[in-house]
Amino acid sequence: MSARRKARKRALDFLYEADMRKAIALDIYQTRPADELSEGTYVKSLLEGVATHIEKIDELIITYAQGWDLDRMPSIDRNLLRIALFEILWSEDLDDKIAVSEAVSLAKELSTDESAGYINGVLGRVIALKPSLSL
């Protein structure tokens, strides 16, 4: 498993925990001992990016996740979408296809049978419209 994939998984863990505890993921991250955060730099970058752009990210999820209310969507799926959308829209050093592939792969591993296809569809719609989105 690549270092960035491990970091995405770890960021997902923090976002999921924050959802469950009604807390802020970055605050949870900052309470962990440094030796527990081997992929720390990219994890922190993902958590900061999601936190900075959460309103726009969630707006996009609500708009393009047809048939799903953000609060009723499985937490893993919602947070995989958040990470991937941050990477797609604000990470200039990452190809969009990699962000989609990683989100889909993690969904297959960690979520429901339908999640991977659903996440792929939402991210595909956003990528198609990316040039026209106002960020």
What does this protein look like?
With 135 residues, the chain is mainly α. The chain has a single domain, classed as N-utilizing Substance Protein B Homolog, Chain A (Orthogonal Bundle), CATH 1.10.940. It has helices at residues 3-21, 25-31, 40-64, 75-90, 96-110, 115-129. The longest helix has 25 residues, at 40-64. The termini are far apart. The mean pLDDT is 92.
Question: Outline of this structure?
Answer:
With 135 residues, this protein is an all-alpha fold. The protein is 72% helix and 0% strand.
Instruction: Give the SSE order as H and E letters.
Output: HHHHHH
What is the 3D form? globular
CATH topology: N-utilizing Substance Protein B Homolog, Chain A
What structural category arises from helix and sheet content?
A: mainly alpha
Uncertain parts: none
Kindly state the percentage of residues in helix.
Answer: over 70%
Measured between the Cα atoms of the first and last residue, the distance is 32 Å
β-strand amount: under 5%
- What is the multimeric organization of the chains shown? single chain
Number of strands: 0
Gross CATH architecture: Orthogonal Bundle
Mean pLDDT: 92
Question: What Rg is obtained from the alpha carbons, in whole angstroms?
Answer: 14 Å
Specify the number of helices.
6
CATH C-level: Mainly Alpha
Count of discrete domains: 1
Main sheet makeup: none
What would you give as the CATH superfamily? NusB-like
